[in-house]
Write a structure and sequence with these properties.
Length: 154
Amino acid sequence: MSDVALTMHGDTLVVEAGDLPTARQTLAEYATRESFVWITNAESGSVWAAYDLAPEEIEGFARGLSEDEYDELMDAEFVRHCGDLYPITEFSRDAGITRGAGLPEWMQGWHAHLSESAFSGLLLRYHQLDPDDDGSPVDMSGGSGVTIARYILS
């Protein structure tokens, strides 16, 4: 299991694995814990400006938008995870993730999250942060990176 990282945060076991079957196997071996967080399907990817995307990709986000909303969309940045496209503006960027205020301890080290349900979502970690400010990401449009992973609470 060389591609698995296990950490304890309070009474929560966090499993970071390259794929869900590996995470499940690892969890089965540690089944006596009170709660688990699976972090799986981590992918390094690029941040893309809207103008770098194919027109049909933008169309899915542009339906029903006013002209002003469309202009905002065209200024947005996007990331891909497991073949799906997400606007970065959908991710909650909360300084609490990196400072440990108000969010679960296991989220430390991630810079943003996108909840898809009460028990799952995506985590985003920027590869490069602006050292002159409060940890905000530098402009990375057009190709430099983030890591995105799925989290599942159980």
